[in-house]
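Attaching the record inline, Q. Sequence:
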Amino acid sequence: MADRGPPRTAEPPLDKGQHPVWAVVSTLLLGGFIWWISGSWVIAVAAIWGLLVHEYGHVLAMNRLGMGPARIYIIPFLGGVAKSQRLPKSEWDGVLVSLAGPGFGLLAAIPFFAGFIATGEGMWLLGAAVIALINLVNLAPAPPLDGSKALGPVLARIHPNVERGAMVLIGALVVFWGLTTGRFILAAFLAIALIGHLRRGTWRPEGRPLTGRESAQSVGLFLAAAVACVGVGVAALMPLAGGSLPGALTMAGGFLGFGG
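Structure, as predicted:
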């Protein structure tokens, strides 16, 4: 998830960042929690590593686009957030920052594919699948996930209320998904974030709106990122499903809580 920073001012104060000790403790708490619920240290490492690489993708884009210096903050039991010092100069920059997380975050799966090749242990493939899942879920167009920041400006070109209505509807569906699949902490976090978005006075951030061409490119990049996430996840699961694509898709559905 990417936080685009505080409202734009002439010279915003530099953020001192999260205290290193608290960051380490928070990361260990999150990793320990994931290890406890998954029963696998590989899954725990994959989740933490995947989250950090995902957020670092946001940081790289923020710094590249003049929004930095950006930093990563760990949220105990939930993950992390990349926070910039300045808002994007345009909605197009905001879209690029949002999609940089899932796009760059998929690179975190490479060591886990390598671990499987070296050891033959299927748990490494499950780690790669978890990383793909983290990035795919972040593409859900529900506040405050990356998908809402990528597609929100496109919908706002039609009408601000179209964006608001779509985000609220999809946000409610994602919260419902979290509740019905046992992801209660995630559901609570998303519900709080959704309420916060509804209460926020300014729905759209400052900055130049998307052009028609940029809107089409935003949708294209969003779809490409989604296909890449699904592709990495299926590639990780197919060997575990005996090379069967339907079997891999069934396993993926099980990860998402849809049957399996």
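The first helix runs from residue 20 to 38. The first strand starts at residue 2 and ends at 3.

More tomorrow.
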